Amino acid sequence: MRYSLFVHMERWDEEVSHRQLFENLTELALMAEAGGFGTVWIGEHHAM
């Protein structure tokens, strides 16, 4: 069975920079890959 992850790069706290959000998303994608996930889907801004 193949697993994938669907995420949004939502900014809940204005204190968190866009760069930090992207770094967090990158870290999550790398963790998913290390855990055997095959794909990370990132939602488009208008679907949020």
From TrEMBL:
**Molecular function terms in GO for this entry?**
oxidoreductase activity, acting on paired donors, with incorporation or reduction of molecular oxygen
Q: Which named protein is this? A: LLM class flavin-dependent oxidoreductase
Lineage of source species:
Bacteria, Bacillati, Actinomycetota, Actinomycetes, Kitasatosporales
